Amino acid sequence: MDAxxxxxxxxxxxxxxHGSIFLSQLLFSAGLPGALWVISDDPVVKENAxxxxxxxxNIWIYSGIVGFLCWFLVGWLFVIPLLIFQWVMPVLAMVAxxxxxxxAFKYPFILRFL
Length: 114
Description:
114 residues, mainly alpha, 4 helices, elongated
């Protein structure tokens, strides 16, 4: 049996997964894609939520590394590129989700833990 999924719902839930990075830098911002990953039946929404969780984990790791390097006055060189990456990539992911709702967006330059 081939299940069909609502395209508008898929677009909204995928955008919520990727856009959750804008909520805050706290741990609860990863709760939205985590919850969508667990409770959604749609495979594309699940994949987008998993990718958004991986992005959260990577941003936290990159921020920790840059924060550590700031103690040695080298990290300040990486703050602006990290902020640009953190803000631009989720916007690109949301646009890609609206333009092509049948496939999941894959972030470049991240490690996939999940």
